[in-house]
Each structure stands twice: as structure tokens, then as C-alpha cells.
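Recall the central idea of this unit: under ordinary conditions, the amino acid sequence of a chain determines the structure it adopts. In this exercise we apply that idea directly, starting from the sequence alone.
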Amino acid sequence: MEDGLVNKWRFLGNKKLSFASSVVIKRVLTSLKENLNQNDTRPIIPLGRGDPSAFPSFQTTSVAEDAIVDAVKSAKFNHYSPNVGILPARRAIADYLNRDLPYKLSPDDVYVTVGCKQAIEVIVTVLTSPGANILLPRPGYPTYEAYTRCNQLEVRYFDLLPEKGWEVDLDAVEALADENTVAMVIINPGNPCGNVYTYQHLNKIAETARKLGIMVISDEVYQHLTFGSNPFVPMGVFGSIVPVITLGSISKRWMVPGWRLGWLVTSDPNGILQKSGIVESIKDFLTLSSYPATFTQVKLNLSLLEGIDNDTEFCLKLAKEESVIILPGVAVGLKDWLRITFAVELSALEDGLGRVKAFCQRHAKKQ
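Accordingly, the structure predicted from this sequence is:
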């Protein structure tokens, strides 16, 4: 010590949080952007991001925008809201969900969070107890693993089956679960796979969970009632102004025509992929497990490529050589796959996949 001062900080930081930040998808995309060739004057094609609303063709409906402006101008809601969300919001959400349920939810059954990440944090914290474990899908959304590690909740992974439209491997779920298993997570509509489970498969999941005595946490289905994660209209702001502008109801007019319950469901909006034929041009190198939705998970055929050993190397070289950003599958728990986003402007999509094709041909093994 010098002059009564400590010469070394005692604060070391939480290593679990450091791990959590390393598995965030945005961090992976940022590292790819750092690998771009600054001398390439072509526009960057973002086929790795998950926010279609950033593009003009997928903007939020004006009905929602006008309603939010009216709510802000009314000055009736410029105050702190209850932690669970204000009553009009919870009532509107309950009424909306009741359309498809055989029983009725009340506003007291609804807890509003500021986006999906806070919802995950709240649920994981509530479920945490000594020795408990949770079952997560692979591939899946990495934020779950981050929060479970921070809360010292053991993670066990069950696989999704690409040959069956990314259905849950229910045999694996039964084999993994034990007396300490508190819950399993399903993501439907699927991120990163872009799939949607049938009613029959969802029923089998529920029956399996009931038999094992575990909770099912269903992510994504109602996360965004409008398109994408536009900062004005995600579910997360329901606790302040959005429920009021709906006047006690949630209108399906808020959804972009052709898209059902959000931004991961309907494949090929407006038929742009069929018209362009761009998907067919890269099928030799990228094996599509299903026809593209907003997201699609594709298998990387490394046997046809020279000097590329894994999905991360593929994405790094693609970014550097073609200024195209694609998410490596390892970021969502599935090595040597790729997650490609199709909800961008058609011109950018055609340009981007054209560059992917050129990249694959340039790195193809010589016959």
C-alpha cells in the first residue's frame, strides 16, 4: 500500500458473464464484419442478421406506427408501469391468446417483459435450484445457455432432427431427463432453423413433458406481433404504450400480410425466391433441410470445397472475399451448418447469393 491506498483492484469480474457475452449472436456477426475487406467497394450483404424490419420491403405497418404516435402525444402514459406490465396490456394479450385456447387466461396470467432476453432471464432465475438441470435444443438460441450458466443451472442438450423438419428428438428428451430436470425449451417458430411445428408434434412434446413432470418453455411464438424487432413495436414495449394504442385488443392488421404470428413463419413471402431461382444455384454446396423461411439452416458440404475446414472458416473467408455476412452454425450449436437470413431486399438477396455461388465455385475442389 502507498499512502493508505490499495495498489491492486479487488474487482475481477464475473467469468461466467464473460462466457455469456461470447456466445451472443451479435458478437459473432461483429467478428465477421471485422474480417471484411475494406478495399471492397461493393455493398455489404447482411444475410446473417435476424431483423427484417431494417429493410424497406419489411417495414412495420403504418397502423402500428400511427397508433404509437397517438399514444405518445396523449401524454397519458409518461410514467413508470407495474413490473408485470400495465393492465390494458395484459388484458389485450390475454384476450388475443384466448382466441386459440380451450381455456381462458386472465390478465393476471400474463407477465410482460422488456423483450425476449428479459423473459429468459426471469424464467431461468425462477427455475434455478441446487442440482437442477434444464433441457435445451441443439441448434438453438445461445442466450439460454448464457443465462443458465450464470445461474449455475446445469444444461443438457437434446437434438433437433433435420431429416424430420427439425422436430424434437423426444427419445433423447426422455433419456436426458431425470428427477432434477425442471424444464425443456422449444423454439417455435424455429430460430435458427425457420421451421414451424405441427399441432401433432407439439401435442407429442406436451405429452412427453407431462409424463416426465417437467415444464415446457415455448419461445418465439408470440414474441413480435408486428414484423421483426423494430424498436417501436416489439412485445417488450407492451408494458408502456403499445397495449393502450390497441384499445384493449391486438389486431392482426399489425402483421405484415402473408406472415402469420411473426417473422419466422411463412416461407418465401411474395414468392420472391421461386421467381428468382437463386436458391437452386447454390444447392450443390449448401444442402437445404427445408424450403427457406425467413431463416433457414443449411448444411455446408465441405467435401466439395478446397481449403475450408469448418463453418467458421467458410463465413470468415466469405466475408473477406465477397462482403457477405452469414452466421456460422457453431454460433447456435450446430457445427458445419450455416444460418442464412432471406428477409432482405430482393436485389440484395440475389446479389448476396450470387456472391455465395461465386465464392463456392472459386473454392471448389478440382475434379
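Residues 272 and 346 are 7 Å apart (CA to CA).
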